[in-house]
Structure to design on (380 residues):
């Protein structure tokens, strides 16, 4: 029976974790938890040891992203989904325009639509497997889309919408599965925000945002109820971007964070920078992704889901399988052999594999994965 397929041990990847988030955590990050057991874990996040840890994360990210003058790193609890609510409360003044082309790029738009103090957002919708950027729209003060749509494996360009800066609008980019894996010019954004459970190899529950001076000023004005259209609103302290910035400047978070998450992230940021920073990380991800796309293009039973080569993600790779190969059965067999988290996004509902190729994943393991998939397919 197909579900009894045993892949030869010498064919298996050394590490079988290919999740699109949570993603592979390196052994060195776990060792860092042991190293911090007495000085960091179980201590106050407002005391020097943990604040030094946060300061190291900020410094490392500033170097990794080569921050323009005036840009700042802020962080807080709740993950990137919390930052959607923060943006609705503190960054969108009146109305936002969204590019939506998958589950996650659409969720921020839904939050804006539900905010009673904002006008209905303007939605520019693309089909899954493609991307759609928002267009210049009258009265809009924030343009929003995802750098990488985790659900479909689509990467979108990051640049200011022509005319938006003259309009006084902000550019807010969801970078959750892109940051650390895809190249970006931060100067083209006002908020480039993400959670650390993807390329930064840590746990979720934390949001990190690279903020422009304009974004920081916008939040301060909105929260101070300065005379801006639609600015008069209640901003809960937990959703106050101004509070987050003020605390981040002190190398701390507004509320108690998971110190373990911070430890693992700090270790990952140092590892990335020590190896060559963004250029190294993005080249490594591109190598792994190219291996998968080339394999799928040459396969008789697989093909890349994203048809536009320029839109194919180098962070999360989606591959459609022929109907003769049941993806769920393939995924189950791979898991039985220690190769895990290769399932497609459930709501997309395709006969598909989805493979995370973040920097922690060894390119040699990606090559081994393709051979294992072929081995199983021949026996299904």
């Amino acid at each position: 029976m197909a579900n009894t397929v045993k892949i030869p041990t010498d064919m298996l990847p050394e590490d079988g974790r290919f999740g699109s988030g949570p993603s592979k955590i390196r052994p060195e990050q776990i060792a860092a938890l042991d190293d911090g057991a007495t000085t960091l874990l179980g201590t106050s996040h407002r005391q020097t040891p943990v604040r030094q840890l946060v300061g190291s994360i900020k410094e490392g990210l500033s170097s990794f992203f080569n921050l323009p003058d005036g840009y700042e790193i802020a962080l807080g609890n709740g993950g990137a989904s919390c930052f959607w609510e923060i943006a609705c409360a503190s960054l969108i003044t009146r109305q936002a325009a969204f590019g939506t082309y998958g589950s996650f790029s659409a969720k921020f738009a839904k939050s804006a639509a539900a905010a009673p103090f904002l006008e209905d957002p303007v939605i520019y919708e693309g089909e899954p497997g493609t991307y759609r950027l928002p267009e210049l729209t009258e009265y809009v003060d924030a343009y929003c889309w995802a750098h990488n749509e985790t659900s479909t494996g689509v990467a979108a360009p990051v640049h200011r919408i022509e005319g938006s800066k003259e309009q006084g609008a902000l550019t807010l980019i969801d970078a959750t599965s892109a940051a650390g894996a895809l190249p970006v010019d931060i100067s083209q954004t006002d908020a480039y925000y993400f959670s650390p459970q993807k390329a930064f190899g840590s746990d979720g529950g934390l949001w990190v945002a690279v903020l422009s001076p304009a974004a920081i000023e916008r939040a301060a004005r909105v929260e101070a109820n300065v005379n801006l259209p639609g600015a008069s609103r209640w901003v809960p302290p937990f959703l106050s971007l101004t509070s987050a910035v003020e605390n981040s400047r002190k190398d701390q978070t507004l509320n108690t964070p998971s110190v373990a998450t911070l430890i693992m992230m700090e270790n990952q940021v140092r590892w990335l920078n020590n190896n060559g920073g963004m250029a190294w990380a993005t080249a490594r991800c591109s190598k792994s992704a190219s291996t998968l796309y080339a394999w799928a293009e040459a396969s008789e039973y697989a093909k890349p889901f994203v048809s536009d080569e320029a839109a194919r993600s180098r962070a999360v790779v989606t591959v459609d399988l022929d109907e003769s190969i049941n993806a769920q059965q393939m995924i189950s067999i791979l898991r039985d052999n220690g190769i895990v988290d290769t399932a497609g996004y459930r709501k997309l509902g395709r006969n598909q594999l989805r493979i995370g190729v973040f920097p922690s994943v060894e390119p040699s393991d990606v090559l081994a994965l393709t051979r294992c998939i072929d081995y199983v397919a021949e026996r299904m």
Remarks:
- DSSP finds ten helices and twelve strands in the chain.
- The longest strand covers residues 72-77.
